[in-house]
Amino acid sequence: MRKLMLGNEAVARGAYEAGVRVVSAYPGTPSTEVSEYISHYDEVYAEWAPNEKVALEVAVGASFAGARAMACMKHVGVNVAADPLFTAAYTGVNGGLVVLAADDPGMHSSQNEQDTRFYARSAHIPLLEPADSAEAKAFTELAFELSEKYDTPVFVRTTTRLAHSQSFVETGERREVPLREYVKDIKKYTMMPASAIGRHVAVEAREDRLAADVNGMDIVREEMRSRSLGVVCSGVVYEYVREALPEASVLKLGIVYPVALDRVREFAAKVDRLVVVEELEPFIEDTLKAAGIACEGKNIFSRQGELSTAIIAEKLLGKKVNAEKLDLPVRPPVMCAGCPHRGVFYVLSKLKLTVSADIGCYTLGAQPPLSAVDTVLCMGASVGIAHGFEKARGREQSKKTVAVIGDSTFIHSGITGLINAAYNKSNITLIILDNSTTGMTGHQQHPATGYTLKQEPAKILDIVEFCKVAGADSVRVVDSYDLAAVEKAVKEETAADGVSVIVARRPCALLDRNYPPAMKVDGCRKCGMCLRLGCPAIEKQEDGSARINPALCVGCGLCTEVCRFDAIKEGAR
């Protein structure tokens, strides 16, 4: 059947048809939907793991047991999974093992633009890069076959543009691949030094074999047209190149590591000028130059952001494609109307505290008018940063410092930071913004929500009790919408010695759409206090007075708590 699919849906379909049995992942844009689509297939066990390291370890375990398995994550998640990843390259696999890594050129929803291709080279793991949804399905299926043929994990790398764009896919039937027999093999699966030394030799032999075989693979495709310009490219960039340079000859690399150097040499000999067009780092370009193949690349294109048809046409042909730009107002991301995090950040800003925050919706607390966040580094880092801040500047300064983290992110990688702070006699206050979901990536379940990826009831991690067991000296719960209670808790906990935790609890406003009546302004004194909340439902009119847009307001009531003149009241929908 022919069906229009997102790239992420096509990856899921490819894994399903390839006979995958176990899929583990942590949600991260742009990879999240892969697991969500897979969860609809009853034949596949699929789960949300607490983090990417655990997800890959689960997939490795399933592979050792003889099943085809996959772990899914975004590019920064590969950092978290790097420890098992590098050693899994040594152990090899039993059942096919695929790692879906989604990169984010342009940083649409990420804190960096790192390039997963370097992980493939460093870990000596092959990497496939599809150009559209049809290839996303086909390459995922191929990845399982290559994994078993060459006894290696295999990367499938996508990018935001591929993950979230649609093209037609031919679907087929699922192949029920039988479990491979598990045979105890200490030298293969137990990576103590004596075993690892031998496996390193096997990894290099496998890589040499792959480097030779890749030159004969069908997913390396040559398209000869004009001899004046030859382009080497891969992934979604191929689509841009074909549209921008219809006369150019193209060598499309479906497998990016290892690079098919013999095929590139043959192609280079047929064209007058060889240009590598690739997003982010000069991965392919540097590989070709190291092999003595003359080419151009990053002398023409930037290492930053996404490429496009217009950029490629302009850089290589001097053509301006759709060059006219509309003068549109900037639309920065903001916390939703009724977001429970807003009140906490309002209080932190009011108290002029130094705030180390984390990756999630609460990162938006850095935006004006709240401007409450000082640092954001990576998942779970807020706790360690606050602890390091206290150890560097002393107790008195730490009274003005708090760490902020979400419930899902706390489970992902904040737990160890809390344990470290308690163990090392820190004096910090950690605020866990518990909105009962993984919010930024679209409301996925986690161990504290009580449901699995497949929406089955599950045991609930009690965050409050866990923090006590982890060594926190004080743990208290407040309602995120109760500004007075939040302020009281923050003042008291930052003044106390030891490690304290405030769980600011209120479900995400988008989880339950049965909102109370919208608020309305009656008798505004133009003081502007309500505008300091940064709520998108509160609008400043030309005369300086405030107005509440009933189409956006969810009736959370925060604005009534900050209005000094009782000018905001409950209205009607």
Gist of the model:
Helices cover 36% and strands 18% of the residues. By secondary structure, it is α/β, with parallel strands linked by helices.
Helix and strand arrangement:
Layout: E1 2-6, H1 7-17, E2 22-25, H2 32-38, E3 45-48, H3 52-64, E4 69-74, H4 75-91, E5 97-103, H5 117-123, E6 127-128, H6 133-150, E7 154-159, H7 160-163, E8 166-170, H8 186-189, H9 193-213, E9 220-223, E10 226-233, H10 237-244, E11 248-253, E12 255-257, H11 261-268, E13 274-276, H12 283-290, H13 309-317, H14 341-350, E14 354-357, E15 375-376, H15 381-393, H16 395-398, E16 401-406, H17 407-423, E17 429-434, H18 463-469, E18 474-479, H19 483-495, E19 500-505, E20 519-521, E21 538-540, E22 546-548, H20 558-562, E23 568-570
Parallel strand pairs: 2-3, 2-4, 4-5, 5-7, 6-7, 10-11, 10-13, 14-15, 14-16, 16-17, 17-19, 18-19
Antiparallel strand pairs: 1-8, 6-12, 9-11, 20-23, 21-22
Helix pairs in contact: 1-2, 1-6, 3-4, 10-13, 14-19, 15-17
Find the structural class using helix and strand composition: alpha/beta
How much helix, percentage-wise, in residues? 25-40%
Average of the residue pLDDT scores: 94
Spatial sequence of strands, sheet with the most strands:
3-2-4-5-7-6-12
Oligomer category: single chain
Using only C-alpha atoms, the radius of gyration works out to: 26 Å
Protein architecture, described:
- The radius of gyration is 26 Å and the shape is globular.
- 36% of the residues lie in helices and 18% in strands.
- The relative contact order is 0.08.
- With 573 residues, the protein is of the alpha/beta class.
